Amino acid sequence: MFKIALNSLLNRRLTVLLSVLTVALSVLMLLGVERLRSEARNSFANTVSGTDLIVGARTGSVQLLLYSVFRVGSATNNIGWDSYQALAKDRRVAWTIPVSLGDSHHGFAVLGTTGDYFKYLRYSENSALQFSKGQPFAKTHEAVLGAHVASKMGYKLGQKIVLTHGSGEGAMSEHSDQPFTVVGILAPTGTPVDDTVHVSLDGLTAIHEGWESGSASLLSSTGVLAADENRALPPPSSITAFYVGLKSRTAIFSYQRAVNQYTDETLMAIMPGVALSELWQLMRIAEQALAVVSGFVLVIGLMGMLTALLTGLNERRREMAILRSVGARAWQIFALVMGETLLLVSAGITAGIALLYALLLACKPILREVYSLNIAINAPSPLEWQLIAATLLAGFLIGAIPAWRAYRMSLSDGLSPH
Fold first, then answer.
1. What are the tens digits of pLDDT across the range 193-209?
2. Sign of the Cα pseudo-torsion (192, 197, 202, 204, in order)
3. Which stretches does DSSP call E strand in 64-190?
4. What is the distance between the alpha carbons of residues 263 and 54, in angstroms, rounded to a whole number?
5. Assign residue 69 a region: left if phi > 0, alpha if psi is -120 to 50, beta otherwise?
6. How many CB atoms lie within 10 A of CB 368?
7. Residue 142 and residue 134: Cα distance in Å, rounded?
């Protein structure tokens, strides 16, 4: 029976090919949306690990998470250095990582921090940052590059780079009088760290001397404040945010309350996991809309296959009648049509999965480059297997319609001239 079904499909290869292509594109849409959704979530979730709280100026928790961790958007206000020091000295705090953002280098974010950044920051499942080359910065005008910055720009250790004042389209002025030397390149992490130029807080303080008005002053433009490693620098007046690791996780809520009630400055502390959950809540409507659209695309694809099967069935009445005349029973005709349908759906699903992985391989560099989204080329997830099984089941149910019609065909109907 399988051989008969296969030969029958081969005799109608053009119609079959179009039906398989329709199902394949539908499966590609369905699985592609799910893969992008899950990988985007994993990419965000893997960025922060082991950080108990993030402290910044009072704003929305999602906004604080986006600009302090993912370099998206900008801070509404900074934290005073005195406030940071006071909160960092709390007895419940094990470590802190101050971060200062705002400048850029060829579109990549520049992050000012301390050596604790390389010591305490974790990503994915508590993985520490690793250096592929070099070491952390030790001097004012030294820089450590994320893996993607180094690979895209072709930078090597010892190379001089110049930072740009500000970020985005408004970043036009360069701190060309104070170049930084690349002393370290981090191993890839699949997080925004890869797209970041890391310098010391002293380095940021140095390049912004004479820029208090937002542009270079006469002292700065004439080179009087040019790079000098021996020049004493004051501590930074403010930072963008700081990450907090506590000695005990039971102290999270009490320390968070202490920050939120801090009287010298209006601050807030957020738990990264909770803020991410809020972000997914905001994204849920868009995710559901995409899921509904991809589901409709699949239904349309299966309906197109059903139309092709029903149309072809009318043209195959004589073929069915001949099969009945040579001894085929009605249930065998039913099984023949069902077998053809399942072959079509299975071929469409296989082609759709193959197209999905081909597109992922082709688009992975683009997604990485444009959206900083790292797509893992893994085997289908349990949810994707469920979607594949649901597609196969839907194909089975739809195939029962032409199979039932074929079952009802009478021998005399098939042999009578039309």
1. 999 999 999 888 888 87
2. negative
3. 79-80, 93-99, 104-105, 108-113, 122-123, 127-128, 131-134, 142-145, 160-161, 180-186
4. 18
5. alpha
6. 16
7. 11
Mean pLDDT of 184-198: 91
Burial of 259 (0-12, 13-18, 19+ CB in 10 A): buried
- Distance of alpha carbon 150 from alpha carbon 335, whole angstroms: 60
CA 375 remoteness from chain centre:
7
- DSSP conformation class of 235: P
Identity of the amino acid at 222 = T
Q: pLDDT per residue over 303-322, tens digit each?
A: 888 888 788 777 777 777 77
Which pTM was predicted?
0.73
The enclosing H or E element of 55 equals: strand 53-57
Q: Identify the pLDDT of residue 223.
A: 58
Q: Which residues contact 414 (CB under 8 A, 6 or more apart)?
A: 317, 318, 319, 320, 321, 322, 324
CA dihedral 114, 115, 120, 126 (to 10 degrees): 110
Query: Residues 143, 106: contact at Cβ < 8 Å?
Result: no
Give the integer Cα–Cα distance in Å for 111 and 197. Answer: 6
Torsion of CA 89, 78, 57, 91, to 10 degrees: 0
Contact criterion met (CB below 8 Å) for 286 and 8: no
Q: Which residues pair with 111 in a beta bridge?
A: 198
CA 112/CA 134 separation, integer angstroms: 18
Query: What phi, psi does 266 have (nearest 5°)?
Result: -85, 105
For residue 280, which amino acid is it? Answer: W
Q: Which single residue is written with the structure tokens 């970041």?
A: 196
Pairing of strands 108-113, 196-200: parallel
Q: Which residues contact 191 (CB under 8 A, 6 or more apart)?
A: 43, 46, 47, 123, 124
